[in-house]
Amino acid sequence: xxxxxxxxxxxxxxxxxxxxxxxxxxxxxxxxxxxxxxxxxxxxxxxxxxxxxxxxxxxxxxxxxxxxxxxxxxxxxxxxxxxxxxxxxxxxxxxxxxxxx
Length: 101
Prior knowledge:
Helices cover 43% and strands 28% of the residues. By secondary structure, the chain is an alpha+beta fold. The protein has one domain: Alpha-Beta Plaits (2-Layer Sandwich), CATH 3.30.70.930. Strands 2-3-1-4 form a four-stranded antiparallel sheet. Helix 1 (19-32) packs across helix 3. It is globular and about 45 Å long.
């Protein structure tokens, strides 16, 4: 099974720039060993189960909490597809194949 989770998580009470906080959230994802792709608006993580990718959410929040963040915004979306894998790469390649035709 392939589960893609697109997640954005950042504090709202720290001023305009969020990059150092997003970097801490990315460290949590990096430490998980799961493949991911950072985009300008969110990060996409791929795992083998909903539980595997969802388990990152509280860890990401606690990383921000340790930085003194008092208010955190987060949104997550899931794309769950049994019988598939490596969709983080394959979905992009599929679109690019049709684009270059």
